[in-house]
Structure formats: structure tokens, C-alpha cells
Amino acid sequence: MTGSTIKAAARFYFERFADLDLADAIFLPGVRFHYPLGDIDGRDALKRYLVAVRAAFPDIRFDVEDLFSEDDLVAARWTLTGTQTGEFRGKPGTGKAVTVPGNTVFRFRDGKIFEMWVAFDPARLL
Asked: How far, in Å, CA of 62 to CA of 55, rounded?
């Protein structure tokens, strides 16, 4: 894949976050997801996590400020916005809006996301 192709795939992930109809098309079965609240292994486990995030923040949106690629990697700088109306990690919905800046590094294999490293301040989300 070219740098522009994998950058487009990374942007697509943010645009269609938690769209489970696309999960099989964009994640390899053995995908690894590393983030400050714990690692997630496997596409099915990642789908469950995405459903939980979407339920807690139904209006979640990512604004991607930068995308950089090299070889099979894409780095993204983004800002998440949303309103927590549902339970998330044991905390009931607050009705409060959140704004959380962060970064994600994607590793691609065979045209799909194989590994992700996500960095953000969890306190701003919770």
C-alpha cells in the first residue's frame, strides 16, 4: 500500500468510528489495540469496545489535524469531542461534553489495521 492509501484508510477509521458493519473490512482478526485504559486483543474484542464507546458517547466525533505515513505506519493527531450520555467504564452518563486531544499510530498489514497505539489523557475522557 502507498502512503496516501494507508493515510486514507486511517482517516476512514476516524470518520466511521464504531461502524461495526465496516470492522471486518478495516481490522485484521488479530488486531492489537494499545491505549491508556488497557490493551485489547482481537477484532471481536475491539468491536465490543467500540460499541461501548459509541453507546456512552453517541455523538462522538474525531477531528483529524495531521496524518503522517512511513512504510506501513500512519501517525494521526486528533481531537475527540462528544457528550457522555451513557455509562462508560462503570461511570454513569453525565450529560457533559468532552474534548480530548490525542494521537494514534496505526500499523497496516495486507491493507488492514493490524495494530494501534493510542495516546490521550484518560482523565479528560472520564
From this structure: 16
- Collapsed DSSP state (helix, strand, coil) of residue 26: helix
pLDDT above 90 for 67: yes
Grid coordinates representing 44 are: 471481536
pLDDT band for position 59 (50/70/90)? very high
Residues with Cβ within 8 Å of residue 90, at least 6 apart in sequence:
none
End-to-end CA distance of the chain, in Å?
37
**Distance, C-alpha 5 to centroid of its chain:** 18
| Torsion angles phi and psi, residue 52, rounded to 5 | -65, -40
Residue 1: what pLDDT? Answer: 67
Alpha-carbon span 3 to 9, nearest angstrom: 10
Residues 6+ apart with CB under 8 A from 51: 18, 20
CB under 8 Å to 23, separation ≥6 — which residues? 43, 46, 47, 50
Cell numbers placing 54: 459509541
